[in-house]
Design goal:
It is a single chain. This protein is α+β, with helices and mostly antiparallel strands. The chain folds into 2 domains: about 200 residues, no CATH class; about 140 residues, no CATH class. It contains 14 helices and 14 strands. Strand 9 and strand 10 form a beta hairpin. The protein is globular. It binds zinc ion (ZN). Zinc ion binds next to helix 6 and helix 9.
Length: about 350
C-alpha cells in the first residue's frame, strides 16, 4: 500500500485508535483495543494480514463500529486470550451467593488481574497501580490537577496520545510514552503525524474526566450567521434558563467521536454521551463542573442536556468531580503555547 492509500485508509480511524495502531505496527506497543468503522473493516483486515499483526474482532459496539484487538505477535495474542478467559470466568462466578458479600480476596484478585492487563497493554507502572488500587473513577484526579495548576488550557498533546488514564497531570512516564508513539507515527508517515497533531490540538469537551469526549472546531458566529437556524441570542436565552452562570458558549463543528451511545431518555434531559445527535454544527453551553446544554445549530434539535445531579445519579457518586463538564485545550510539545485560531470564539455569559 503506498502512502496516499495508506493515509486515506488510516485517517478513517479516530485519532487515538490511529496512534495506537501505528504504535503496535512499529512494535512500540504490544496490543491495542481499537474502534473500527464497518466501512473500513475489509481494508483493516487486509492491512493487519499484510503487516503480520494478529487481529481479533471483539464485538460490535453500535450500528457503525466494531471493537477490534490488534497484537504485535502471537505470544501477546495468546496472553490476551488467556487473561480474557480468566476475566470472563471470574465475572461468571463473582455473583455467586457464596462470594457476593464485600470480599478482600475478591478485590485483590481483581486488582491483580488489572495489573496483568495494564502490563500487557504496555501502560506505565505508576498509572497501572493507581487504576488497580482506586478503580476507573481515579482517572479524574489528573484532570483535577490540571485545573488546580491552571494547565487545563495548555495540555501537552502527548497526554491524549496514550491509551491509558494517566496517574497524574505531570506523569513523566505517560508523556514519554506519548512521545514514543508520536515518533513511531512520524517514522511511518510525516503526513500522518501532521494529521494527528492537528486533531489532538482541537479543544475537547468532557462530560467526565473519563475517556469519552467530543472534539470541537469552534466557528465564528458572525461568518456562519446565515447558515444556522438557531441565533446566538436565542441559544443564550435558552442556556441561561437551563444552567447556572457562569456559562461558556461556543458555536462549533463536532467531528464524529470515537464511539456513540444511544439510550432511552427522560425529558427534558438528554444525557447519553457522546450520542449520534451531537455530530455536526452545534451550539454548546456549559457551566464548568455543573452541567451542559447542546443543540444542533442548523435544526434546533436537542443534542445534550445534563446537570451534575442527573449525571451522578446515573454513574455513581465516585464520579463526582469538578473536572466534569469542561473544555480542555492542548498545545504541541514544541511550543507549549496555545494558538488563538485553535481556541476560537468561546464566550462567557
Ligand atoms: Zn503514571
Amino acid at each position: 500500500m503506498d502512502e496516499p492509500d495508506l493515509f486515506q485508509f488510516l485517517t478513517k480511524l479516530n485519532t487515538g485508535d490511529l496512534v495506537w495502531l501505528v504504535a503496535v505496527l512499529m512494535r512500540e506497543k504490544p496490543i491495542a483495543t481499537l474502534v473500527v468503522p464497518f466501512e473500513v473493516g475489509e481494508w483493516f483486515r487486509a492491512f493487519c494480514e499484510k503487516r503480520h499483526l494478529v487481529r481479533f474482532e471483539d464485538k460490535s459496539l453500535d450500528p457503525h463500529h466494531t471493537r477490534v484487538v490488534v497484537c504485535r505477535d502471537k505470544e501477546t495474542a495468546e496472553l490476551y486470550r488467556k487473561l480474557g478467559e480468566i476475566r470472563s470466568l471470574f465475572d461468571d462466578i463473582r455473583h455467586s451467593s457464596i462470594i457476593s458479600h464485600p470480599n478482600e480476596a475478591r478485590d485483590e484478585f481483581i486488582a491483580s488481574l488489572t495489573r496483568f492487563e495494564g502490563r500487557m497493554y504496555g501502560y506505565p507502572e505508576c498509572c497501572i497501580e493507581l487504576h488497580a488500587e482506586s478503580g476507573p473513577s481515579s482517572r479524574a484526579r489528573a484532570y483535577e490537577e490540571l485545573l488546580e495548576s491552571g494547565k487545563d488550557r495548555s495540555i501537552p498533546i502527548e497526554f491524549w496520545a496514550v491509551a491509558h488514564a494517566p496517574c497524574s497531570s505531570t506523569c513523566d512516564e505517560t508523556l514519554a510514552l506519548g512521545r514514543k508513539y508520536f515518533d513511531a507515527v512520524a517514522e511511518l508517515s510525516e503526513a500522518l503525524r501532521c494529521h494527528i497533531e492537528a486533531r489532538l490540538l482541537l479543544p475537547r469537551f468532557y462530560q467526565t474526566g473519563g475517556g469519552r469526549f467530543i472534539e470541537l472546531q469552534s466557528l465564528d458566529y458572525d461568518r456562519c450567521r446565515g447558515d444556522v437556524a438557531v441565533s446566538m441570542e436565542q441559544f443564550e436565552k435558552d442556556a441561561v434558563e437551563k444552567l447556572p452562570k457562569p456559562i461558556s458558549t461556543v458555536l462549533c463543528e463536532v467531528p464524529h467521536p470515537r464511539a456513540l451511545v444511544c439510550a432511552q431518555e427522560d425529558a427534558p434531559y438528554k444525557t447519553s454521551f457522546p450520542n449520534p445527535d451531537m455530530v455536526g454544527t452545534m451550539w454548546l453551553a456549559y457551566s464548568p463542573g455543573f452541567g451542559a446544554y447542546m443543540v444542533n445549530a442548523k435544526t434546533g434539535q436537542l443534542a445534550l442536556y445534563i446537570i451534575n445531579d442527573k449525571w451522578i445519579e446515573k454513574v455513581g457518586e465516585e464520579w463526582r468531580s469538578k473536572s466534569n463538564f469542561r473544555v480542555y485545550r492542548s498545545v504541541t510539545g514544541s511550543s507549549h503555547e496555545w494558538k488563538k485560531d485553535v481556541i476560537g470564539f468561546e464566550k462567557t455569559l
